[in-house]
Specification:
The complex is a heterodimer. Chain A contains 5 helices and no strands. Chain A is an all-alpha fold. In chain A, helix 1 runs antiparallel to helix 5, helix 3 packs across helix 4 and helix 4 packs antiparallel against helix 5. The longest helix of chain A has about 30 residues. In chain B, strands 3-4-5-6 form a 4-stranded antiparallel β-sheet, with no helix packed on it. A 4-stranded antiparallel β-sheet of chain B has the order 7-8-9-10, with no helix packed on it. The two termini of chain B are about 30 Å apart. The radius of gyration of chain B is 19 Å and the shape is globular. The longest helix of chain B has 13 residues. By secondary structure, chain B is mainly β. The chains are: A mainly alpha, B mainly beta.
């Protein structure tokens, strides 16, 4: 149980960091697309700012998304153990994707600007998938132990 | 008073009687939609023309529109749409819609970026996120900065705005001022220069509501700096220039209502800087608009289902009225 909880927390933190990173770069891509120059130091500064600054809203959303998504994967994997890796990765991917789609449906607006584009939305799924992958690897060690 | 419910009301000078204007077109009422602003023709005394800005359209395709009509009692007649922001959008927010007649008889209006279309504010061919300038019949003046259409839409007067909620002209200095809602921590007051870029969304002092940068650029070459910005945001709403006689100490000051802080800001220019004073916090309600009446009094409109119009009078008048009430 402790290992599962630790794995979940690690998955949330990593998914959050990658998600924030993708959001940060998505926003900067929009700015450069308008013809403005963004230096490498401004880009790096934005990553630090955004990863450290999105904990109020985005981090809890990631946490809730994975909290809902990973148990669904677990239910499937119990009956199909060979699907363990793809199950958790897919669950993380779908969980973050669904979070943004549901937010848009409820608010009528995109809470996270880069998710207005398909690539921005898919990048969020990738962040969730990375979280799911990490959860799979870390929680799986308990069986090996 | 233009209401988001889609009605426009008229209050008499005593504040005792309120009537609803009839004959107005249906507005798109959802979220920040409805009616936005009303302004009188500079020759209203002879032509009774009024101009109203409103949200027009459907959930799938809506935008800010200006209609012109003739006021006949409580009825508006001969209504004609004279300008509609294009392209239309599918969000019910960020319309702008504040209007101001300029001394040459042209009409300026702010437009919002529609929230989901913020990059459009930097597209000079797109009318969202702009201050536009038109003639009173909706035609486009030949001296607009992009009048020839080669580098932008002919109606564009300035660009790079988010959701401007105040617009006022100072006849003494010839300056046009506007303020706009930033995102989180980016409300700003600007001096509007024809053809100028005000930065949104590439250059801003605010951040996304999520906490992420909208852009790491807070300044950039070729982008006008705000005269003042508010961080945290105050929810600037309504903008008035005081030039009345009732408050001599307020001459030339700008007044800004605040939706978030529920007060009124008095802004005074001191050289190149702006000094700010917080007034009327005791009202304790979201302030939707601030205007100066022809009587020189300040009128404050609060924002709620039970919104109020508050008339601010000098102490001596207030005391006189109180004495009169006691005598009666």
């Amino acid at each position: 149980m402790t290992r599962t909880l630790g794995s979940y927390i690690a998955a949330v933190i990593v998914a959050y960091c990658f998600g924030a990173l993708f959001i940060s770069q998505g926003n900067i891509a929009a700015v450069t697309g308008l013809g403005f120059d963004v230096t490498m130091s401004q880009r790096l500064g934005a990553i630090v700012h955004d990863v450290s600054g999105m904990t109020d809203i985005y981090l809890p959303l990631v946490a809730v998304s994975l909290l809902l998504g990973l148990p669904v994967a677990f239910a499937v994997i119990r009956k199909n153990p060979h699907l363990r890796m793809i199950g958790y990765v897919s669950a993380g991917f779908v969980a973050l994707l669904a979070m943004h789609v549901i937010m848009k449906a409820v608010l009528g607006l995109s809470g996270i600007a880069p998710t207005r584009t398909l690539w921005g939305l898919l990048a969020q799924g990738v962040a969730g998938g990375i979280g799911g992958y990490l959860f799979c690897r870390l929680s799986g060690q308990s069986k090996a132990d | 008073m233009a209401l988001r419910s889609g009605q426009v009301q008229r209050m008499d000078a005593t504040g005792q009687s309120v009537s609803t204007l009839e004959g107005l077109p249906e507005s798109y009422v959802l979220s920040q939609g409805g009616y936005f602003d009303i302004t009188l023709d500079p020759k209203f005394a002879t032509n009774q023309r009024i101009y109203l800005s409103l949200a027009h359209g459907t959930p799938e395709a809506n935008g800010t529109r200006i209609v012109r009509g003739t006021l006949n009692g409580s009825r508006v007649e001969n209504l004609t749409p004279i300008f509609t922001v294009s392209p239309l959008k599918d969000t019910p927010v960020h319309y702008g819609g504040k209007m101001q007649f300029l001394p040459d008889g042209t009409l300026a209006m702010t437009t919002g970026d529609g929230f989901e279309y913020r990059e459009a504010a930097q597209d000079t061919f797109n009318l969202m996120g702009k201050v536009i300038r038109i003639n009173s019949d909706g035609s486009i003046p030949m001296d607009n900065p992009f009048a020839d259409g080669g580098q932008g839409h002919p109606a564009v007067w300035s660009y790079g705005h988010r959701n401007p909620q105040g617009l006022v002209f100072d006849p003494d200095t010839g300056e046009l001022y506007s303020h706009e809602h930033g995102a989180k921590g980016g409300d700003e007051l600007n001096r509007i220069i024809p053809g100028a870029n005000y930065g949104w969304p590439a250059v801003t002092k605010g951040v996304n509501y999520s906490g992420a940068y909208i852009s790491p650029l807070r300044t950039a070459p070729g982008v006008e700096e705000p005269l003042i910005f508010w961080d945290p945001s105050i929810g600037a709403s309504g903008l008035a220039l005081y030039q009345g006689d009732a408050f001599p100490q307020w001459q030339g000051a700008l007044f800004v209502g605040t939706l978030v802080d529920s007060d009124v800001r008095k802004l005074t220019f001191v050289g190149d800087s702006v000094s700010e004073e917080i007034l009327f916090a005791e009202i304790g309600e979201r302030i939707r608009d601030v205007r100066v009446g022809p009587d020189g009094m300040l009128y404050i409109l609060t924002d709620s289902d039970q919104g109020r119009v508050i008339r601010v009078v000098p102490d001596d008048l207030s005391n006189a009225a109180a004495s009169s009430d006691q005598e009666n």
